[in-house]
Structures
1.
Amino acid sequence: MNVRLAHFSLALIAVAFAAQARDIHYGAVQHPDLLDCDQLQWRGQNDEADACYRLLLGKDVPPAIHAEAAWALGDLQLANRLFRDAAALQPDDASIRVRWGDLFSETHQDGEAMTIYREALDADSGNAFALLGSARVLVGGFDDEANTYLEPLLTDASKDAGARAAAWLIVARVSLESSNMAQAANALDEAEAILESGDWPPLELYALRAAADLLNNIPESRYTAMSLEYNPGYGGIYAIPAHFYVITRRYRSAIDMYQRAVDIEPGLATAHEELGINLLRDNQMARARKHLEAAYDVDPFSPATVNTLRLLDSFTDFELINDPDIPEIGVLPVTLRLHRDEAAVIAPYAIKMTRESIAEFSRRYGFELKEPVIIEMYPDHEDFAVRTAGMPGIGILGATFGYVVAMDSPSSRPPAEFQWGTTLWHEMAHVFTLEATNHLVPRWFSEGVSVFEEWRSGPNPGVRIPMSVYNAMKEDLFLPIAELDEGFVRPTYDEQVIVSYMQAGLVCMYIDEAYGTRKLKDVLYAFKEGMLTGDAISEVLGISPSDFDDDFADFVDREHGSVLVNLEEWHRTQQSIGQRLLEEDWESIVGLAGHMIDILPQYIEPDSPYIAMAKAKEELGFHSDAIQALEQYWHNGGYDPAALTRLSGWLSDADRARDAIEVLQVVNLVDPLDQELHGNLGDLLLAEQRPDEALLEYQVALALNPHDKATAHYRIARAHNALGDREASQGQLLLALDVAPNFRPAQRLLLELMRADSGNEHN
Amino acid sequence: MVAPPALEFDLINPRITVLLTMFLPLLAAAELQVVVIEGLGGEERYAEQFAEQVVALESAASSLTTSDRIRIFRSGDFARETVVGFFAELAEALQADDRLAVFLIGHGSYDDHEYKFNIAGPDLTDGDLYDMLNEINSGQLLINTGSSSGALADRLKSDERTLILATRSGAERHATRFGHYFVAALSDGSADIDKNRLVTAEEAYEFAARQVADYYERNGQLATEHPKIEGEHAARFSLARLGAAQPVREDSQLRILIGQRDAVNAEIEDLRLRRDGMTPDAYQAELLNNMLELATLEEDIERREAELANER
């Protein structure tokens, strides 16, 4: 099964499954007979509730109530048909459409649900439960428009009490997700007051209170016992808090909680699904499949479940590569899961870089990894997305779940779009910040350290800040340090996530420069102790968060202020260069590119002025100036493979083989699937008497299945020969000559080897 | 000093044929006729590309045949009737054992009924090409590097004709990259898989097809062209010689050495045919002996050629 995007249209019409329990409706439907059944269900008296619903199906009640009973009994097809009939009979009754919309929402058909909620609001513009249903769907999609629907419920006491209570529960949940504990507590109090005045079950309230306790480091909440007393089979009391373990990246704790949820409520599909996804994050493949299949059995509508099961099926196309091959005492195992088409190409570099990152971060952060590291790389970005979030469509390049790292492979994106080596380095930094703090590190700090380490110690160092972030700096959009997590969790504008990454990186850079590397490490360990950001800053750095913000702003101004002052001029000049390039006006381009470089010398994105400068200088015949321009680009962290390959060729021609090699090694971090690159790099290395490195490059070139296999084998033979391994060299020469018997260079080397052997025997 | 004629084909075994003809040039008496037809570029960038490709093709053809056997129709300088008339003349001039390589460098179109190669004035149609080529009795290779060229596959397929087309069907209508890579193969040593310093149509096709696929895959684009090859003779149809041709020298010692070398090459071919019935070790051991013998003979031949060059 290779299809990743599950398509769910109006599937309810065609299917009938034993769906998971129907959600608490807080009075969206008021029929007394139905409420009698619901009370049994909310109390966990499931057998009695089922009997009650079955009885209700036979009673002379409105079709919408029959629909509710069918829904509760898991017959979604019948429920859908009955709601449709009911809506046709009473087209002006908004409450029927609301519940019909709820049915679509619960079966992951948000678009259809919103359409029906809108119809309900057309019939009754103030319908509280239509507002609630709409808000619930929009919150699930991280859509700020949800506030428009929530606001009347939170402010208008004349609205239905149940809907108001449920709205406050949504607010509480969102607040907890944003770590806004005070706002969450207030929302929970509001919800509780309303629930107590009515007759609605407090189960979700208890679960969110337990989640709040969890976030306040109270894992054994009293609300858990209260919930179990109210309804011993309510799995949400574990599953809802477990979600907060997930978003704070404490995956193993989440696994334990989800397991408890399905233990007491085996039909809770969402918990099985989340359990399966989080087990994958912990590399427990077999157990994950079991729970995903359990989720599918109950709720086959969930795209996350279907997508993840399909991803698991695709793992037969992947190879597991262990380093070392055979476990060695004292050597931390590293396992790669790579697609078989590119495993031989990527594995040598990935293992080397992973080892180097482990050595670097162990030393820098004083933490030794305790478990094997698993690195997965996906040639299809959407597979990576499903691996990470269960759904396609996420924009990130890599994700770390602890000791398991998943990321895009080099072939998942066009060359020059991303540096896979730098991404791996970034993710490995996460392994350390997560594990060193038992996953208590806040998102901003973990990302900040990873970005900072990319810049400082990564395989292609250099401070790379996208233009969109400079624009945000100019508009003063950086967040206070204590709120920086918000920029990742609940972004409020398009570029805020990337802006937050860069701000976090700059904060870590600032701490490192102003307070020293030791203090950066101390902040990390403060998080291990459970401190929140403000406390960690105050405790470790001895400064209040607001004063820190002021000092950081000064730092940003010192480092980038001159850029920000001239940013509009930079943009104008860049537009002029574009036109001059079309006109091939090289003299003007030299001046304009030079001006841009003066304003912002660190800018090395694909539209960097260094590339235009090099092109113009070359066209004007100033070859050494062209080399200089691309060297500056390279030294600043530039990574465009075409530009760097050109630079390497120029450096090689200028007898600067060592520099040429270094440049091509950067290209390897961007475009390792370029066959020619490995051959050329190997030739340079061999000429520089570095045959072991040359051999690696030649072997990778062969693994890319080149058209010219004879040359590939011949190159390997030369490297083996240079390493003194004549037998291996002869073997490769025979492979070359088997393809091309008249390949003279290979023939000559074969004779040379044989004569040397013969000479040795005679001696 | 006479350049050895181009490769012959249709002997006993295709692979042996290549080797034998490479080293026994006197046996090959057939002539190679090359025709290049350059279509309209439409846009300046395509016109420039096509012109560059035509120059490269002329250079490649010159390495294998004489200038009087290379005919270039440059874009805008000819009409459909000129081409049709020229092929009628070729039909008279070419012998059965001659070979004809026709390159169509340009854009094509296909309306689900008729293929057209775009030139100034009335276009060349699939019907024109069918008539022009069918009148000629010798072995043929048609290479069409343009859009919609796949539409020609069914119409022009025949036992004595090899077709290399940039697209798998007429429906692939976007401008292609295949021509660029195919022409590049004719001067690129890495396209010469067997390192005999001759690039065959098959080698150039495989090189170009791979480059096309890589291009789209690595740039994350949907491939809008899928090259195809029809016919059995591409492996025996050389299109370019890499490096200078060796002069033929009348020398008995050299002739003996070349004869010995060709015999060893034949033994290697025989060994390859027996490979499936051998153990890997036995195959490797025999291959090593043969390769050492071959390498030694090559060395002797080079030495003798150097001696002869010094004598002159």
2.
Amino acid sequence: MLRPALKRASYILALILMFLIGAELQSNGFIEEMLGYQEDVVYLTGQHIELVAISGGIAILIAIPLGVLLSRPGLAHIAETAMQGLNIGTTIPTLAILALSMSLLGIGTLPAVFGLCVASLLPIVRNTYTGLLEVPAHLREAAAGIGMTARQMLLQVEIPNALFVMFAGIRTALAINVGTVPLAFLIGGGGLGELIFTGIDLDEPVMMLAGAIPTALLAIVVDLLIAMLAFLIVPKGVNPLR
Amino acid sequence: MIKIDNLTKIFDTPNGPVTAADNIQMEIPQGEICVLLGPSGCGKTTTLKMINRIIPPTSGRVFINGEDTSGLDTVDLRRNIGYVIQQIGLFPNMTIEENITAVPRLLGWDVNRYKARATELLEMVALDPAVFLKRYPKELSGGQQQRIGVARALAADPPVMLMDEPFGAIDPINREVIQDEFLKMQQELKKTIMFVSHDIDEAVKMANRIAIFRDGRLVQYDTPDDLLAHPKDSFVESFVGDDRALKRLRLVNVAQVMESPAPCVTPQDSLETALQQMEEHGYSHAITLVNQQQQPIGFVSKQVAQTTKGYCGEHYVGLKGLANINDDLRKIASLMFTHDSTWMPCVDDSGRLVGHISQRGITHYLGATYRRDGRQAAPYNLKLA
């Protein structure tokens, strides 16, 4: 067969290429230079993760109840308006939000967390809201017909059936969040942005890369983590991945 | 028992109020199936859904077993009513076991009790518990899903069941099978059931009583036989169809129509005896031949008996068709048309001859109801001939 053979050959080629790049980087001292920032990278990555965890966590805690609330029939008359409001909110560039929150809350972690939180709110609210609205009407009728209370219906039928869509929202939000954290450095929030922006300012590409590469890796890892969580948590019967 | 007293629903629409159900008044006796029948938009589903308040009534009351349900909490009311909908509505996030035990869990049964109940119910709807308990709804066929839907409604053994076109989404072959299974279950369970359908054949098959709706009004509420024999007005008449006399065939079984005891001959009898028997009973064509176990094996025709000498065992013809006393007349009529015969021997479950059924007997039976109220029997009988 041609295809497995081709695949094997391309693997081997990629390995050789990687080895050559590695050897080249090693010989011109790039790796050595990069390792010089090791201590900074470890510390700043910790800070970066902390910012993501706190702001993302708060965003989830606010956005999911908000999405649930807006999807309730009692609030149907204001739900669309509220969603439009949030939509407009997201069109404001993240940097502007950070600047605004700085002018309100000063410099440091607090305004950074606040700004990041606001920036990651919308995808979660929107997916929670639409996910819950898309639960088929006949499921709700069946749940009501067998005598579930509104709360039981929400917890046992609506949320489990919307969970996959809700997770997709969380995934998007955290991807945005990880990518925005470097900007937090600009208002004194810390994180890997410190290496990136300082690297740019000092025209030191290695320093900049020492910040940029871990940021990229972090985004991929967070994405994978959320995907794994979704795989494990979303009930088997409504999980397209299982 | 369900009693509906002056139930009315008025929907407010942008084009003004619409009366979906107009002073509905009816009573369904304990253990019977009542089918609500009518074209779409006639108010049958609205009436059904007002009983468990999926649609809140504008006015009027519903009594279940004599108790006024307007005094009950909506959630309690619904937990005591089995509910089956056309889209089935199994929860895709739950296993079959969790789906079936949804109501018992809401009612706070203990684990062993509701697990045992799930197994019992799966067996009742003819699905193997070992295979299906842990599956998810998406892994089941439509027919299997609807069986689970029925099992879920039966889980807490409610006295009353509401079914909204429960078999509407199933292909015709499976629908027949599920209807039969359901009727068999109902013979034991004796639930009081309200059942919405738009299919007159399904209604005639399932119902003890049929309620015909039109434009939010209850037009006629009768037993299937009375409805088919005496449609109240031209709307009901057109709704039940031109072949309504034929549909009645399904409502009557052989035992009700056959003539018994049936004269018969054995292989040892002579043809003279056979001829004598036929003349005695006025049979113009033939007489049934039975073996020692009284099971029909063929017939001796009059022509042969008149022209030949010998024993019946040597001069008989094999059977064309055989009616079981539990068969409905529709099947028998079909058999008679297929075999071009005007009569057929009837047997009980052990295969012994118990009577005869003839085309004349069938038309006579079906015609009786028309003659009773002095109407002309002829036009109706013509349709059967």
